[in-house]
């Protein structure tokens, strides 16, 4: 039997000696299986880390900017998972409170709280109900309330109590209503513009901040020189970088207060006359005002006039207007190596600046946001000399108060920037007149909220493994690769089995 079987044509098929090779034992297949398993594990792991943002939940915050001229309610939103990253918070909605600023309610404090109702109701609708209770609400009052506090502290407290009471009546998380300092107003404005420009986590330069309100104005930037006065220096650490800022807020140098100051100075020189001839107003402008409406401010000593009323007449002379505005800056003394005005230290301006609030409203209305300094002056001179009649005909939909004051306001802006802050025709182009960056308004409110909610950490937070786009591409390529490997493995398996079967046959 042994002999006969040794003579067969197919010795492999010999009984007892046939061995079908199992393809899974081959090292290549083991390797492929290992790669596939590892690939799947890596994909699952990355998915767990990266999947979170796909299920974004938004959080919200509300800040009320109680300015001297009016109050605005800002609603911010940000993805809950990414709250410590720069550029994540955006403005969802704004609401302008009807009527004047809260400081105008000094004789009727209850009215201040009541005035907020409409906008706060709107906030309730804009923010999903299940988020209401965890949405912080802050009210920050600026220079109008600083002035009221100087004039009548009790009245200012009553107004603040009234707005606090009103805000506590909503389902949000009330966090306080207070007068913020000029330093805070400057520093938070700077944080806002640099947060929105995503300058804070990069080693690139920062943007200085120029804010012009009705009652005060702020300048904030990173200076090249040492800051000689303690009051003007602010240091903070954001996302792992140290910032040394220069900031100053000039109370009474908002555009509405400066208008009063310069009119008051002109009235002083015409004590007995009941006519104020004003080069900062258009020719043909003629308005009867009360003397009290000019002197009703703690920014100026009241001057006794012969009459209660006066006629405010426009002359439309830009260069005379600038001469009169220069008088509100005291440059006769400086206890430091250099000053802006009124004996306030200021290092030389450096880098790019964002100029917002009334800087923007005024320069944008006059189409002066991108001219040279000389060009701006020339256009302004022509603008101021335009007859008032023509102005009202050309701009029937513009508020008359604003329209009548643009010549004055723009002349003040130019004088403040050039004579006050010492911008020159060379670095004029570094001033960007801006309203918004992306969806969000430039102003102190966003920076204030980021700070109060600890959303800008001192040290840089962890970043996701890779950007979202990169992650999707990576996952796609990786899936394709795994598919390819599976296909290869399958083809290899088929071939090996076929060879084995052939071998058996
Ligand atoms: N469209 C506009 N045109 C001109 N000025 C404007 C416009 N909108 C607002 N303003 C002015 O901007 C200034 C805003 O100041 P505000 O923030 O109320 O005061 P402050 O910051 O000093 O407390 C006011 O002088 C207001 O009249
Ligand atoms: Ca303001």
UniProtKB/TrEMBL annotation:
Subcellular location: Membrane, Caveola; Membrane
Highest taxon listed in the record's lineage: Eukaryota
Top-level enzyme category: hydrolase
Residues annotated as catalytic: 185 (proton acceptor)
Cellular-component GO terms for this entry: caveola
Record-level Gene Ontology MF annotations: apyrase activity; ATP binding; GDP phosphatase activity; ribonucleoside triphosphate phosphatase activity; UDP phosphatase activity
UniProt keyword annotations, A-Z: ATP-binding, Calcium, Disulfide bond, Glycoprotein, Hydrolase, Magnesium, Membrane, Nucleotide-binding, Transmembrane, Transmembrane helix
UniProt xrefs under InterPro entries: GDA1_CD39_NTPase (IPR000407)
One of the GO BP terms on file: nucleoside diphosphate catabolic process
Residues noted as binding ATP in the record, renumbered to the chain: 214-218
Main location: membrane
Transmembrane intervals: 28-49, 470-493
Catalytic reaction equation(s): CTP + H2O = CDP + phosphate + H(+); GTP + H2O = GDP + phosphate + H(+); IDP + H2O = IMP + phosphate + H(+); UTP + H2O = UDP + phosphate + H(+)
EC numbers on record: 3.6.1.5
Membrane disposition: Multi-pass membrane protein
Subunit structure: Homodimer; disulfide-linked.
The family this protein is said to belong to: Belongs to the GDA1/CD39 NTPase family.
Job of this protein: Catalyzes the hydrolysis of both di- and triphosphate nucleotides (NDPs and NTPs) and hydrolyze NTPs to nucleotide monophosphates (NMPs) in two distinct successive phosphate-releasing steps, with NDPs as intermediates and participates in the regulation of extracellular levels of nucleotides. By hydrolyzing proinflammatory ATP and platelet-activating ADP to AMP, it blocks platelet aggregation and supports blood flow.
Protein name stated in the entry: Ectonucleoside triphosphate diphosphohydrolase 1
Gene: LOC107707825
